[in-house]
Design brief:
The complex is a heterodimer of chains A (271) and B (439). With 271 residues, chain A is of the alpha+beta class. Chain A is 46% helix and 21% strand. In chain A, the strands form 3 sheets. Chain A has a 5-stranded mixed β-sheet, covered by helices on one side. In chain A, strands 3-5-8 form a 3-stranded antiparallel β-sheet, with no helix packed on it. Chain B has 439 residues and is of the alpha/beta class. Chain B folds into 2 domains: 215 residues, no CATH class; 186 residues, Rossmann fold (3-Layer(aba) Sandwich), CATH 3.40.50. A 6-stranded mixed β-sheet of chain B has the order 1-7-6-5-8-11. The relative contact order of chain B is 0.11. Classes of the chains: A alpha+beta (271), B alpha/beta (439). At the A-B interface, α9 and β10 of A face α3, β15 and α12 of B.
Chain lengths: 271, 439
């Protein structure tokens, strides 16, 4: 029982720690808090590693333009009305956690009225925790325990996943241009379909109606940040096969260009 | 070199003779007895201003090399400009650019040397905006703003309407999309947060100052009493699908016309739709003279070898029939010029319907120019390819606003601003293609 309670409290500590790291990296700490937390960072290499990792994650998120999403989430988190809808699951989980903790505390106090509960596991040596002021409340952080729980490999895995997700995020600026015919007569594309999902490394067949007036035709491949990955000048004829081997996984866009005009635009999700 | 003349009544006229490079331009003060008023008879006024017997005003900017510019039209322009309007007229040679900045009270000439960098920037901007290429689009757009519009900043203060007379070289530059302040926020530009010129001004274009004046003097549309046939408020042409099955059908083009016709009928106005096989060139010619708004929602045709046949496509169009003839279902600029059009507005909702192509170094082919010369007061056209679905949505928004009492230019600006606000449609490729030529 005590072990369960310990684990639950450890989880709470971990969450607190993660929140402190977030606040530190986002610049939300007051001057005093910042100074105290900086001191802690300088004294604990594991915490330092965690903070650095969190910074890297933020940078990666920024790179992938997910910052907008994060800001939206932040907004939702800060607004109590909205968070009711968005975080109902989390609130439910927190309620269960709180009820369980209270229940366990009550049980503990009923059955073992010996000594006040220690945050440390019994077999571990107590490490003096430094008080960190957070407004009116004082938080006691036991770094030797909390930092063990946020393992850098797990965070790296999370960051990697985020990065992977970011590669599949659509580029809103191009989405509306996909698939609709253009109002110029010169070209009729049969294949591919405007939106495709294929395993990575597949080939894509571009096939069009052979028109004598076609000239200066090229295919531009763009990633989901708008960066042009390659431009291929199309040969005469009525087809071209694109090998996606070199593109990796993610969402890509293609533009068929003739005489400096877009004549068709589509997207391919490479799984 | 910059000369500035501030005069409420500009009686002393200047004649500027450009001989070769602009730096050699001679500014000759010339006391002229020409005093104009809004009541002056138009043909007489034109004769006096330009010395052109038939009132043909296409005299300035579509010629190059040794040219003559009649600046004596400045007082007439000033008289016709509203208090919130500014006209920017551009004249470009390979090495120099002259901007005539005219408002009701101020006339100023700004001249600057142009290097190859300027022409590279123009070419890159045109290419990137039409190809939805994000890279450097913002910086190119801002660079062009600094060269083309910033010199007029002082005169533009407090003004709301910009009349741009771009000249041949700048006719394919959408001034609306020029960026006043650089807005790169991270790797991907936030196109919905850019400060475009359209945020500050309503922008319209004209081929020459003379044509702008002429359009101002044209009588407003009124239901004809002398005609045997009833007048039409809205005439729409869209084949949707074509006689030749090889041509891509345009499902949204027909929807566009039907929806617009509904809007007109809700306001008690007459709408006449020519769809499918009825969307023929002959039927267009039949009702072109008695339609207030003529709207084409179709494909456009362009042929490198025969730019003279560039035009709007009708149902009977046969693209692969070998030699192109005027009877192959294309309405070309040359054909339009010979018509007598009284319309307040012509809408050419097809791909690159407003693009200009060179016939030789002097003459140009432009469908909107053909309509303006045929008598149309306003022409709404596109500078590059548009998609069927978005073209439909933009036009519906435009007519909704116009039918609620806005002017054509206000309606178009408001539609564009709505598109800019939304990230999905904020890319200038989507909204900046539409260009209103006229009043």
């Amino acid at each position: 029982m005590i072990q369960i309670v310990n684990n639950l409290l450890n989880m709470i500590e971990i969450l607190k720690m993660a929140e402190w790291i977030d606040r530190y990296n986002e610049g939300d700490l007051s001057t005093i808090e910042h100074r105290q937390f900086s001191e802690m960072i300088s004294r604990h290499p594991v915490l330092r590693a965690e903070v650095k990792l969190d910074q890297e994650i933020i940078r990666m998120i920024e790179d992938e333009d997910v910052l907008e999403l994060v800001q939206k989430l932040e907004k939702i988190r800060k607004s109590p009305e909205k968070s009711m809808h968005g975080y109902s699951f989390l609130m439910l989980a927190a309620s269960i956690l709180a009820l369980t903790t209270i229940g366990l505390f009550t049980l503990l106090f009923i059955h073992t009225r010996d000594e006040p509960y220690s945050m440390m596991a019994r077999d571990e040596k107590p490490v003096p925790a430094r008080p960190v002021s957070s407004g009116k409340t004082l938080l006691y952080l036991d770094l030797s325990k909390t930092t063990k729980r946020i393992s850098p490999p797990a965070c790296r895995e999370m960051a990697k996943n985020r990065q992977l997700i970011a590669r599949y995020q659509p580029l809103p600026e191009l989405e509306l241009l996909i698939g609709s015919s253009i109002r110029a007569d010169a070209f009729h594309l049969f294949s591919p379909k405007p939106r495709l999902s294929l395993p990575g490394g597949s080939t894509i067949l571009f096939q069009w109606d052979p028109v004598p007036e076609i000239s200066n035709c090229s295919l531009e491949i763009i990633d989901n940040t708008g960066k042009v990955l390659s431009t291929i000048f199309l040969p005469n004829g009525d087809r071209f096969v694109l090998d996606t081997d070199y593109l990796g996984k993610g969402l890509i866009y293609w533009k068929l260009i003739m005489d400096e005009e877009i004549i068709s635009l589509g997207s391919v999700t490479l799984m | 070199m910059e000369s500035k003349i501030n005069a409420p009544r500009f009686l002393v006229c200047l004649i500027v003779i450009f001989q070769g490079p602009m730096m050699n331009a001679q500014f000759v003060a010339h006391d002229d007895s020409l005093q104009t008023s809004a009541n002056t008879d138009l043909p007489d006024l034109m004769n006096r201003l330009f010395g052109i017997a038939e009132g043909k005003l296409h005299h300035c900017f579509f010629s190059s090399g040794l040219s003559f510019y009649g600046i004596s039209e400045i007082p007439v322009i000033q008289e016709n400009l509203g208090p919130e309007e500014v006209m920017l007229e551009y004249s470009l040679t390979e090495t120099h650019m002259t901007i005539f900045i005219i408002s009701k009270a101020v006339f100023s000439i700004h001249q600057q040397a142009l290097g190859p960098e300027f022409w590279k920037t123009i070419a890159a901007f045109r290419r990137k905006i039409r190809l939805a290429d994000f890279q450097e689009l913002v910086s190119l757009s801002h660079k062009l703003y600094l060269v083309l519009v910033a010199p007029a900043k002082q005169v533009l203060q407090g003004k709301k309407h910009l009349i741009v007379i771009p000249g041949k070289e700048l006719l394919s530059v959408p001034f609306e999309a020029l960026i006043v302040e650089n807005c790169m926020l991270g790797k991907i530009p936030q196109f919905n947060q850019c400060h475009y010129l359209i945020l500050d001004f309503e922008i319209t274009y004209q081929f020459s100052a003379g044509q702008w004046i002429e359009a101002r003097y044209r009588p407003p549309w009124s239901a004809g009493k002398e005609n045997a046939f009833p007048e039409i408020d809205f005439a729409g042409f869209s084949p949707g699908s074509y006689q030749n099955p090889a041509i891509n059908p345009l499902p949204f083009a027909q929807k566009e016309l039907v929806s617009i016709a509904e809007l007109f009928s809700q306001k008690g106005l007459t709408a006449c739709l020519r769809l499918e096989a009825c969307s023929s060139k002959d039927l267009f010619k039949e009702i072109s003279e008695r339609s207030r708004i003529i709207h084409f929602a179709s494909h456009s045709h362009f042929n490198h070898d025969h730019p003279e046949f560039k035009g709007i496509v009708f149902w009977e169009y046969q693209p692969y029939s070998g030699i192109l003839t005027p009877d192959n279902g294309i309405l070309s600029a040359g054909e339009v010029e010979s018509l007598a059009i009284k319309a307040d507005l012509i809408v050419l909702n097809a791909c690159a319907s407003g693009s200009v192509s060179d016939m030789d170094n002097v003459r140009v082919i432009s469908l909107p120019l053909g309509f303006v010369q045929a008598g149309a007061k306003n022409v709404l056209s596109t500078l590059w390819n548009v998609t069927d679905r978005l073209a439909n949505e933009i036009m519906l928004g435009f007519y909704r606003k116009w039918l609620s009492g806005k002017t054509f230019s206000t309606a178009l600006r408001e539609v564009k601003l709505e598109l800019i606000r939304c990230r999905e449609t904020a890319l200038p490729t989507i909204w900046a293609s539409y260009m209103l030529i006229g009043q």
